[in-house]
Amino acid sequence: MKINKFAFLFMGAVTINGLLANDIEEVIVSSSLIDQAASEIPNPLHVMSGNDISNNASKSLGETLNDLLGVSSADYGSGVGQPIIRGMSGSRVKILDNGLVNRDVSGLGADHINDVDLSNVQQIEVVRGPSSLLYTNGTIGGIVNIVDNSIAQEDVQRLVKIGLETQSVNDGDSQSIFYQDNLNDINISFSYKDSSFGDFDVPNGSIIHIEEEHHEDHEDHEDHDEQEEELGYLVNSDFASESLKFGASKTGDWGFIGFSLANIESLYGIPYHGDEHDEEEEGHEEHQGERIFSTTDSDKFDLRGSLNINGNFLSSVDFFFRDSDYVLTEQHAEEDDEHDEHDEHEGHSKGPTTFANDSIEAGLIFDLSNDQLSQKVSLNFVDEDTSVLGAEAFMNPASREELTLGYFASRDFDIFHVDFGIRFDNIDSEGSVSSAHEEHHEEDEGHDEDHEEMETSFFDKSFSNSSLAFNFSKSLNDFIDLDIGFASVERAPSAVELFMNGAHLATGRFEIGNANLNSEKSNNIDFTLNFNYDNFFASATVFKNDVDNYIYLKDETEEEHEEHDEDHEEGHDEHAGLILANYLQQDAELDGYEIEFGNTIILSSGELTFSFGRDDLSGEFSSGGNIPRLNPARNIFKLKYFKEDMSIGLNFKDVEKQNDIGANEIATSGYQMFNANLTKSINLGNEGELTLTFFGNNLLDESARNHSSFVKSQVPLPGRNYGLKFNFKFN
């Protein structure tokens, strides 16, 4: 642990606390996208509280949500974990920060991190259905909304918090501080977090040595395998981050207005980087010790407010503006002298590659609610520029403009409740595709020469999409509630899907986009029954999602690869030994179910709750074959004991094997993951409260692989991890 930072934060908090008055209460703003209590939003919905987040080990966003039914993670090491909702990921799932989309570059690569800060989160909402249409387009999978109080909508009281964490699996630690107050009727907030986690340990035998696939004749192969397995950790799986956020707001009977400034910088290793030297006998071995990493730097400025009109027709007007700049740089560290000669290989460059996204978003939300009907109208504009520049650039710069209109309505009738949403989107995407071709020239002296020239095609694509969603809920009796949801949502292709053309080493593929792609259209229906009787609870959901023009990445088969090489003698060299993959589309169908039941037992000393949940998903193309990288069925057992100042949580997750695989995909074995935590709160009197959390993850030290990951063969999940968290709250 960084003792100097620990001392600095602790002394800083004590000093601040000494200057502040007592009798202060933490104010938690219950926030949801439609100004409803989170528990009142119709299914399907998950809400994870800030306490649940702060009392567990620091994880990626995807891993934080991974134990929620229907939600999983596409991981790429410790720092990267993109959320998956019922098999939908990437640009199909929108990540929101206080209701505004995080416009990072996570959609440009499976190895790109979500630009989020979970250090002072009040809650995370996972929402599908009508309300998701009000805030952003293309929500085929749904949205993940991260809520904090950086721009307070109500006056806050003085609060100081510091947090400390240490983990064993990666010899990591983190420190954070948060301060809020109301000074001269101005609400201010400040938060800072610094985290540093090294390469994480893996169970023995978890590393699959890739040379088995490519270098069967390598004399040192057997010895190298043994060294790899004995290493005990995953190279380039480290993660470090530093985040800083400041916010201020003014409130009154008229509404509120405020702004926030946020900066997040991170550095994380890339544990797998597709090898462009497949045909070279020594290529892969030389890459094994190479330092490959990414750095990120993001700046966000938010202006947000609400004006209360209180008219007969218009109740209030919400307005928002966000200017965000995001840069991710992927690079190779300098090698030792013994590897210098590797630079002579032409197919591989160690120069940096920079991914950048600059965007401006602005919008208005008109609240037209009355006593009978809750309704809102939203107008939204987005201007976004994306570029990939450098040694491994695989896409020319692209731009995108969005102009959208959304409407949401909710009404209670005597015997049922109805939610309805509709959205119209006009999206313009501009980009280009460059490809090399050889031209043959006859020289004057009779010598022939071949010259490689670049040919660039420019595209201006427009998409006019419409989406609607409907949710019906009814109490069948005092114990059973029924929810029926239907959504028809369109998503325009992303820039990568349209204009990609190059080596994407993070996926080990040479990816080719398709400028002729049409918008996807998801037609989803789900039925949910909720049962509550005394202390017993249960729920069951079945869903079916028919997706027209489903966009996917199709790998070239071995037969196609051989035919390609026969037609083009140098075709293999042209694609640098990577798998050739094309973005295509065809109709697809996903269906599945989620069930959960449990019971709460009231004890003399507290409450004991146990539950069982299971989710299962399958997906097929209309022409036959499975959708790749769909997570297998999971059984989740939870046990939690709670009393006033202490809680104990046990979580056992049984992940089944996945044999329903896509073309050229590798099946994965099942595994069991056992996690536990103990949280104890200590009253420090006038000095505040200390919360101690002991946690243990993967206590069985299971060798596990996430089937949804592009790099599941090369990147296993971390091994046994235990740690301690301190959370101080000064009143």
Describe the 3D structure:
There is one protein chain. This protein has 731 residues and is mainly beta. It has a single domain, classed as TonB-dependent receptor, beta-barrel domain (Maltoporin, Chain A), CATH 2.40.170.20. It has helices spanning 3-19, 50-54, 61-64, 211-214, 221-231, 283-287, 495-499, 558-567, 571-574, and strands spanning 45-49, 71-75, 81-85, 93-97, 100-101, 123-127, 142-147, 159-167, 172-183, 186-197, 239-252, 255-269, 292-308, 316-332, 353-367, 374-390, 398-412, 417-442, 448-475, 480-491, 501-504, 509-512, 520-533, 536-555, 579-603, 606-621, 634-643, 646-655, 671-683, 689-697, 721-730. The chain has a 22-stranded antiparallel β-barrel. Strands 1-6-7-4-5 form a five-stranded mixed beta sheet. A two-stranded antiparallel sheet has the order 2-3. The longest helix is centred in the N-terminal third of the chain and has 17 residues, at 3-19. It starts with a helix and ends with a strand. Residues 1-32, 36-44, 210-229, 276-287 and 335-349 have low confidence and may be disordered.
Biggest sheet layout: 22 strands, antiparallel, barrel
Radius of gyration computed on alpha carbons: 26 Å
Count of discrete alpha- or pi-helical segments spanning 4 or more residues: 9
User: What is the number of independent domains?
Assistant: 1
Mean pLDDT: 83
| End-to-end distance | 26 Å
The total strand number stands at 31
Name of the level-1 CATH class:
Mainly Beta
Question: CATH architecture, please?
Answer: Beta Barrel
Tell me the layout of helices and strands.
Elements: H1 3-19, E1 45-49, H2 50-54, H3 61-64, E2 71-75, E3 81-85, E4 93-97, E5 100-101, E6 123-127, E7 142-147, E8 159-167, E9 172-183, E10 186-197, H4 211-214, H5 221-231, E11 239-252, E12 255-269, H6 283-287, E13 292-308, E14 316-332, E15 353-367, E16 374-390, E17 398-412, E18 417-442, E19 448-475, E20 480-491, H7 495-499, E21 501-504, E22 509-512, E23 520-533, E24 536-555, H8 558-567, H9 571-574, E25 579-603, E26 606-621, E27 634-643, E28 646-655, E29 671-683, E30 689-697, E31 721-730
Parallel strand pairs: 4-7, 22-25
Antiparallel strand pairs: 1-6, 2-3, 4-5, 6-7, 8-9, 8-31, 9-10, 10-11, 11-12, 12-13, 13-14, 14-15, 15-16, 16-17, 17-18, 18-19, 19-20, 20-23, 21-22, 23-24, 24-25, 25-26, 26-27, 27-28, 28-29, 29-30, 30-31
